[in-house]
Write a structure and sequence with these properties.
There is one protein chain. The protein is of the alpha+beta class and about 170 residues long. The chain has 2 domains: about 90 residues, Glycoprotein, Type 4 Pilin (2-Layer Sandwich), CATH 3.30.700.20; about 70 residues, Dna Ligase, domain 1 (2-Layer Sandwich), CATH 3.30.1490.150. The strands form 2 sheets. A 4-stranded antiparallel sheet has the order 2-1-3-8, covered by helices on one side. Helix 1 packs across helix 2. The two termini are about 20 Å apart. About 40% of the residues are buried.
């Protein structure tokens, strides 16, 4: 599927939700399953929101949930309609996560995203994040722990579960 279709559809969903409080169904998006979908917004090159779904989800439904969710990312004020023209939309389609035994050997910066889980807590970082932030592998794993609300070295603990996944990332042409 062409990435521009996904990015355009995400923008349409956000606009429709902000204008009318709802969205209309669109059959352009295939009903294939994926490992998850995230919608990320950037404003003037800075993160403005990033929300998604993980797990066996249909692409169409995951995109709807992520596009509506990113409007209300709790880290930022809710997105306003007049602000939409100032943001760039990015869609990440995830592969199913795979558990890794040795993250320092199995996770590759720029290719893999991570999910860190321990004690009912979970944190996810998309593959593009460490590249954008200039992190090395140790920093990437540490920030995954922090995202889960855990200590930064938790990825070394035997009780911590680490998953990796890949993502097809599609961006608007700015």
């Amino acid at each position: 599927m062409e990435g521009s279709v996904l990015v355009n559809e995400a923008r349409k969903i956000i606009r429709s939700y902000l204008e009318r409080g709802g969205i209309s169904d669109n059959t352009e998006i295939l009903d294939r399953k994926c490992g998850g979908v995230f919608v990320t917004l950037h404003k003037k090159g800075e993160l403005r929101g990033c929300i998604g779904t993980v797990g066996g989800v249909k692409l169409k439904e995951g995109l709807k949930r992520a596009a509506i969710g990113v409007i209300h990312d709790p880290r930022f004020p809710p997105l306003e309609l007049d602000e939409l023209k100032e943001v760039d939309v990015e869609v990440s389609v995830l592969t199913p996560p795979v558990r890794v035994a040795e993250p320092e050997k199995e996770v590759v910066i720029g290719r893999d995203g991570i999910i860190v889980q321990k004690g009912g807590r979970s944190g996810l970082l998309l593959p593009q994040v460490p590249v954008e932030e200039g992190w090395n592998l140790g920093e990437f794993l540490a920030y995954g722990c922090l995202k889960a609300g855990l200590q930064e070295g938790c990825w070394r603990d035997p009780g911590t579960i680490i998953f990796k996944f890949a993502a097809d990332v599609f961006r608007e042409d700015s």
